[in-house]
Amino acid sequence: MTTTPGTAAASGADDLLDRPGLPTGRRRLVLLLGALSAFGPMSLDMYLPGFPALARELGTTEAPVQLTITTCLVGLAAGQVLAGPLSDRFGRRRPLVGGLLLYAVASVLCASAPGIESLVALRLLQGLGGSAGIVIARAVVRDLYTGVEAARFFAVLMLINGLAPILAPLLGAQVLEVAGWRGVFVVLTGFGLLLAALVSLQLPETLPPERRQPGGARATLGTFGRLLRDRGFVGCALSAGFVFGSLFAYIAGSSFVLQTKYGLSAQTFSLVFGANAFGLIAASQVSARVVGRYGPRALLTAGIAVSATGAAALLVSVLLDLGLPAVLPSLLLVVLSVGLVAPNAAALALADHPRTAGSASALLGLSQYLVGGLVAPLVGLAGSDSAVPLAAVIAVSSAAAVGVRVLVLAPAGHPSASPTR
Q1: Hey, which of 39, 117, 135, 239 has its CA 20 to 30 A from 126?
Q2: Hey, how many other C-beta atoms are within 10 angstroms of the C-beta on 24?
Q3: What are the phi and psi torsion angles at 392 (to 5°)?
Q4: Following DSSP, what letter does each residue of 81-127 receive, concatenated?
Q5: What gap in Å lies between CA 248 and CA 269, rounded to an integer?
C-alpha cells in the first residue's frame, strides 16, 4: 500500500500530537486552529449590528464607521506579511502568542476609544495582532498536510471558522443590549487572551529548527519574489482574493443596506447574517467530502462560478428593485461560494511551498484582506438608502475572480492543481 505525501504528513501530525502534555488527536487541533482562523470574522462581524448606534454615539456618518472595517482589514493584511515570515524563521508558537497579546491590548483600547478617529487607528492595531492567528494557523496545516488532505483539513477548519459569522453578530447583538458597542470590544479582549493561553499550553511546535528559514528582511523579500513568480500560486491567491473582496463588501455594506433600506431590525439582520454563514459552512463541508473525487482545482472553479452567479443575480435584483425575496438568495450564493473557494485555494497555493509555508500563507492572506480593505469603503458611497454600490462592488469583484481563473490559472498547468494531490 503506497503512502501519499498528504497521509504521510498526517501520520507525522498524529505522532506529534500524541506526545505527553500536548493535544491528543486531530479534533483538538482542528478546534484550536479553527478558533485562530476566526479572528477575521470575529473582529469584523461582531459589532456589525451596532454600526447605526456607534455612528450616533460618536456623532459621525456611515462612511467613517465603515472605515473602521477598512483599517482592521489593512491590519489583518499587513500583519500577515510580518507574522508569516517570522513564523518561518522562529517557529510558529512565539510569533503567534505575541500577536494574540497585541490583539488583546488593542481591543481594550478600542473599548475606551473617545472618538471615531482614534477607533479607526486602533482597529489597525487590532488587525495587526489578529493577523498572526490567521496566517500561522494556515502555516501549521501546511506543516502537517498537503494536497487533498490539506484541502480536507482546510474545509474542516471552515466548519469552525464559519461558526464565527453566525455567532459573532448574534452575540454582538446581545452584548449591545447590555453594554453597547464598547462591550463588544471587551468580549474580543477576552477572546484574544483565551487563545493566547490555549496556544501556550496546548499547541505543539510544528516547525522544527532544521526546517526554519534563516535570514532577515532580504531573505524574506527573496522568498516573496519567488512566490510572486509562481503563476499557479499567484492565480490561486488572486482568485481567492477577489472572491473574498465580494465577501468583505457584503460584510461592510449589508448592515446598513438591510437595516436601513429594507427595514430589518438588528436581531433580524443577525439571523440573516447567520443563515448566510451557515451556507458557507455547508459548502465547505461538501467540499471536504468530494475533494477526493474532483480535486481542489475543480472545486475552486465551481466556487468562483457560484460567486459570479450570485453577484449577477444580486445586481439584477437591486437594479430592478425586486426586494428582499430576490436580494437575500443572491447574497447567500455570494457568501457560500467562499466555502468552496477558501479551502481549495489555500491547499493549491501552499502545496509546492513546504519550507516557506508561513510566507506563502502571508501572501495568500494579504491578497484576501487587501482586496477587502480596498472595496469596503466603496459600498457606502451612495449612502445607506441605496443598495446599488454594494451590488456593483460585489459584481466587479466576482467578475475579476472569473478573469483570473480564465486568464491566469487555466493556461498555467500548475502541477499542484492535480486532483490526486
Answers
A1: 239
A2: 12
A3: -70, -45
A4: HHHHHHHHHH-SHHHHHHHHHHHHHHHHHHHT--SHHHHHHHHHHHH
A5: 16
For 340-352, the pLDDT digits (tens) are 998 899 888 888 7
Nearest to 74 by CA among 16, 136, 122: 122
Pairwise CA distance, residues 325 & 191, whole Å? 36
**The C-alpha cell that represents 4 in the structure block:** 501519499
Question: 254 is written with which cell numbers?
Answer: 449589508
Asked if 154 and 37 count as a contact pair (C-beta separation under 8 A), the reply is no
Q: Where are the domains of the chain?
A: 22-417
DSSP state, residue 205 = P
Question: What does the pLDDT average to over 12-22?
Answer: 40
What does DSSP assign to residue 406?
A: I
Homologous superfamily (CATH) of 22-417 is MFS general substrate transporter like domains (1.20.1250.20)
pTM for this model (two decimals): 0.71
d(CA 369, CA 366): 5
User: Residue 290 carries which side chain, given as an amino acid letter?
Assistant: V
Asked if 365 and 131 count as a contact pair (C-beta separation under 8 A), the reply is yes
